[in-house]
């Protein structure tokens, strides 16, 4: 067996994962083809025309017409699944693994998927269909293999088994009653919601009651506003209007803590991102919601913590090797039980369960159903949000249906047929259907970041030209501004690679000083200028690679390693120079950055070359897109076999090489290298990259954006000097401007996200 997914891809094996990780800031076409390999005009050079064409052709085979050039974050869950299947078709896979593909799909989307699975099977593709939805297994598959606790139980033809036999094989025992018998008699009203309307328009005018000992099912399609409604009741989302009452007492939950205090608990739909703390233990996850109650004077009681964990494990029947094991090692069903047990420890009066059985095995599903029944028997009110219609009908005393953010009906599951409930969930207006088709074509403000930065730059330059026309527009001032921008832009372009790849390097200022001192002293020792330049670039690249290498080996965040590097490199530089400036640099060395070529400062020409190289790597080369992919999502990168560690080291090495060049330009332009050379450069470089649209969390960034960000900072610094702003105040103005710019960028991203919803 191989641990490299890329070898599986080469062998014709494709996988559609249950928890579909994707590269949100890359295009749909890249998400589809990055694993098997983007088409190349020649080695390393991406053929974008062929990339988009192949992605479109693969989607057309599935009858889909998705915008392959749009960012993948615009896609619904169903579209992501279909896009992964289309990718498998495009790479001509002979074996396709589908892992719980219908877990988050609506009934209609499931039917589309089933049609495609049957079509692919008829085309000769072998398909392994992993699911806990047993009716799908019996309807779609030819043979069934049952695994339990990591071991093979049996393999049989579908014709030889029925539902009971399948359940018995999975659970290891007979499940006499999959859904517990409903025997509760609702009492007084616990929760009353009246005319609740979301601030962002995702649901409106929702009125709902939940009584003591009652389960109310909340059914609807994905995107109907069910989860947002529950989150609003729990205080996660804000509301524009409406009222919430608990036992007749008005409640204004402005935070989950306030809702918990009033006896409300919420089990989220997204278990991996909102439910569990992946790297923490079962015990730490279990007691997270009750830490305050098991603490004395802010000190956690170890005994109470262990007692609480044991109650969770026993009450929810969690299968684990012990409370100290990381929760990410547990199966999805056992993770869900821990999260449910966590909320049960808060002793809630109202428990909102959002898709509680999604992606869990049939045994765990049955146990969760019985826990819900026990909660009702003890007088608790349960709001059950589920896309599984049989589950909603069997577990609920009443079923409320949402569609397009509205409550469209309430049904009696003992009298009303499932078809009637399902029909109410589907949009009926032509306007809705058209909006659904256009959902992936929403106007995305974030696509115009660079134009916005260019406009801001033009405004700042216009203001300065108006206020200080003679000084700002003078040739000498323009030359100085361009030269300072050139060196900063080289550092900012390097920062774009590091941040885009998901890292951070705050040692580049000190690195510039050390590398510049080495290359300058080499020049003074008579080493040819060209060789000094090569030494600086190689040394910078090596130091950058060492930074990331230490981070990976020691499993320490890069900010810690580079924080140490900031001090180490500055200390080494001063030790090397004895604390003195490196001066009297040779004329040949000075000629690299001092003087003009075709009327433009030479340092600007170097910056233009670096800009072109960075643009080519990030936009046209496979390696650049892979670096951004790793920054977008390391789990998704691992799923398609990208060498995340090597790409991270490469991104730091590229940044270091750019800093090496910047160090030579610094010494050549200023004619000397002070012991403080490069101080503060790291912050300005990071700021320029972020202003230019580089997501500080990784995954996005462009060369043009970073360059424009550097121009904006350079012009602003120059303007403050011309306006004779006190030097002590200049950093305040620059910092405030950077903060405002980043906040505007964040607002643009948020608005883009809302338009997609």
Helix content: 40-55%
- Per the CATH scheme, the topology name of the largest domain is ABC transporter involved in vitamin B12 uptake, BtuC
Tally of contiguous helical segments: 31
User: How many angstroms separate the termini?
Assistant: 42 Å
Strand order of the largest sheet: 13-16-17-10-18-19
Mean pLDDT: 86
Strand content: 5-15%
Major β-sheet annotation: 6 strands, mixed
By secondary-structure content and strand pairing, the structural class works out as alpha/beta
Please tell me the CATH architecture of the largest domain by its name: Orthogonal Bundle
Shape: elongated
CATH class category label of the largest domain? Mainly Alpha
Number of strands: 21
Annotation keywords:
single chain, 757 residues, alpha/beta, Rossmann fold, ABC transporter involved in vitamin B12 uptake, BtuC, 3 domains, 6-stranded mixed beta sheet, 4-stranded antiparallel beta sheet, 31 helices, 21 strands, 53% helix, elongated
Question: What would you say about this model in short?
Answer:
The protein is α/β, with parallel strands linked by helices and 757 residues long. The protein is 53% helix and 13% strand.
Task: Explain this structure.
The structure is a single chain. With 757 residues, the protein is of the alpha/beta class. The protein folds into 3 domains: 5-130, 3-Layer(aba) Sandwich (Rossmann fold); 189-428, Rossmann fold (3-Layer(aba) Sandwich); 446-747, ABC transporter involved in vitamin B12 uptake, BtuC (Orthogonal Bundle). The protein is built from 31 helices and 21 strands. The strands form 7 sheets. A 6-stranded mixed beta sheet has the order 13-16-17-10-18-19, sandwiched between helices. The protein has a 4-stranded antiparallel beta sheet with strand order 9-8-11-12, covered by helices on one side. A hairpin with a 2-residue loop joins β20 (596-597) and β21. It is elongated, with a radius of gyration of 30 Å. The two termini are 42 Å apart. Residues 429-443 have low confidence and may be disordered.
